[in-house]
Amino acid sequence: MSVPKKSNLSTLIQFLHIILDKILEFILGWILGVKRHVSAPKNKDYEELLSSSAVKLAGLIRERKLQSYELVKAYYENLLIVNRDLNAVVDGPFIEAIEEAKLIDERFKNGDITDEELKRKPFLGVPFTTKDSTEVEGKLHTLGLVSRRNERGSKDAECVRLMKEAGAIFLATSNVPEVNKWIETRNMLIGQTKNPYDYRRSVGGSSGGEAALISACCTAFGLGTDIGGSIRIPAFNCGIFGHKPTKGVVNMRGCTFRSGDEESTMVAAGPMARYADDLLELMKVLTGQKMLKELQLEETINLKSLQYFYVPCNNMIQCNPIGKDEQNLMMKVCEHFTNLTGSDVNLATLPHLDMTGKMWRYWMTQEPANFNKLLGNGETLNPFIELFKKLFGRSDFTMAAIYSLIDALLPPENEHKIREATRMCKEALDDLLRDNGVLFFHSSPRTAPFHYYPLVKFTDFSYFSIFNVLHVPVTQVPMGLDSRGMPMGIQVVASEMNDRLCLHVAKELERKFGGWVKPYK
Ligand SMILES: *[C@@H]1O[C@H](CO)[C@@H](O)[C@H](O)[C@H]1NC(C)=O
């Protein structure tokens, strides 16, 4: 790998980043005390089952080697215990999930389930969860807002409906930051969700409750949404897989009040799971039959015939410099794919990556949703009054939410400049990847920080949000643990409609580097 030349100024800024990072680690580490992590499922007989892939569990149920009742009950019980520490659940786990599982077992026993039904229901009898901001009929739908503490969903979001139609059993809704707009998972209604690997550290956001539950073996898989990294940041922080699909391939109806008919949006709903295999099979359900064909999700892929690229950093002076461990990881990934294909993984540059922060901020203002109004649950909030209340400990909002309110008052980005930069970056990426290229991109310059760290340093999420700006599919892949015992990871990017390339490369990375690592001993 060649290291780009640096000016003295950027060297100085990088040095300051490292100092500030170390100071924050020290102070927050001191405040947050000793490290604790999640324990293995109490019922040892079920440990192997609960840590399996959703695809494997579905297979066991289909072959009647496992009762759905047994599985759902085991997840239910583990979730109850683990959630006392993680604080990841908003609503659930639901006892009716166990009842539903019993009915399925009974229908199996009576021979009522035909092969045709099994084909339609690839996840029959397997439990799943979703973030609270995605609507589920009859379940709490708070978006982390105190003002919505009793609000319930009236209709299943399309992605939830599709999973239920595929036979999966709904188990619980999980915690989010207020209206999903933060990179940690904390609100004034439920509180803060903890990382299964280290309770002192952030689960990321916004699908943070999901990632924590999945990694800690409290559910078989989950559903997330991603407008600036909201699937991938928590997946990265909690060491699991997550896929942000090409924009528009998964219907958004019912996710954060969306109708599903929005023309232009950066948001995409997608699967989160412990195993790469699950992502592909879940995508087949979530896209629906027609889109499944267009995305060619059932095609086999010759990984040796693809072209691979990597970008060593995004050149944003606002971001932490890429850590040593992260650099080594990227090198190992490149080496592996060089070995696999017999040709080099090429260093790539994309124009204007250093403007990612500005690009994402601008495109957020072009979203159909009004975040201030979402936060106010229909009413427009005055940022100064909210800040004032916060300073006196009387606010219903977190500091992160108040940041967002204040940010909206700051001068807007230069529209022309941003649109031009976006166009150039997108064109360069399309030219680079075409229909057979894959890009490796760092997930983050460092592993999951302590809680509250992002209130001081939050710009690192630009490594994720660039791909919302560019609308391309990305799979977040867990890649073992660093010296702190926190999950490392990498993003696998392809051009629009080539989700299958990301998903197959993710599988290869899992095979080679081990994928999800249990957060307990
Ligand atoms: C690539 O191949 C070389 C030579 O066989 C081997 O030493 C190296 O460990 C391989 N790299 C990876 C990441 O597997």
From TrEMBL:
GO terms for MF: hydrolase activity
InterPro entries for this protein: Amidase_CS, Amidase_dom, AS_sf, FAAH2
Amidase domain boundaries: 70-503
Record flagged with keyword Hydrolase: yes
Active site per the UniProt annotation: K131, S206, S230
Keyword annotations: Hydrolase
Transmembrane spans: none
Protein family according to the UniProt entry: Belongs to the amidase family.
Protein name in the entry: Fatty-acid amide hydrolase 2
Protein source organism: Bactrocera dorsalis
Annotated gene: LOC105226009
